[in-house]
Automatic annotation (TrEMBL):
Source organism: Pitta sordida (Hooded pitta)
Family of this protein: Belongs to the peptidase M76 family.
Protein name: Mitochondrial inner membrane protease ATP23
An annotated GO cellular component: mitochondrion
MF-aspect GO terms: metal ion binding; metalloendopeptidase activity
Domain of life: Eukaryota
GO biological process: mitochondrial protein processing; mitochondrial proton-transporting ATP synthase complex assembly
Enzyme Commission number(s): 3.4.24.-
Keyword GTP-binding: no
Length: 134
């Protein structure tokens, strides 16, 4: 049913929408700021760089345009890892500082690494989810 297939998407309303054109997206300052802060994190944060390199060594190369998505989110959610698409969702309307972006990207990269390396069953094995959150 609908509840079984939710996977928490109600917190990420942009997940099921058709992608807007680059021109339309680039006009929104939240999106621009998110993209700039993400780029800064990926280029300068040692934890993010360590995790990206570990993923590469495990055979899971990350492509920034494909595996990171800046989107509007509901409530006070900062980000999430969408295992169905192997994407890290960054909540552009809730991440306002570089230090916050650094923490969110690092946290979600840990989930992405676990997904890549350990083939975590996010939705049926609560122990897998708990292990990744620790």
């Amino acid at each position: 049913g609908a509840e079984e297939d939710d996977f928490g998407y109600r917190l990420f309303p942009d997940r099921n929408k058709k992608q807007q054109s680059f021109l339309v997206r680039s006009l929104f300052t939240f999106h621009n700021r998110c993209q700039v802060m993400l780029r800064m994190t990926l280029e300068t944060n040692p934890y993010a760089q360590l995790l990206l390199e570990a993923m590469k060594q495990s055979g899971c190369t990350v492509f920034n345009d494909r595996h990171f998505s800046c989107e509007d989110c509901d409530g006070c959610v900062s980000g999430g890892f969408d295992a169905a698409t192997s994407q890290i969702v960054l909540c552009q309307n809730n991440i306002r500082q570089q230090s916050h972006m650094n923490r969110v990207v690092t946290h979600e990269l840990i989930h992405a690494f676990d997904h890549c390396r350990a083939h975590v069953d996010w939705f049926k094995n609560v122990k897998h989810l708990a292990c990744s959150e620790v």
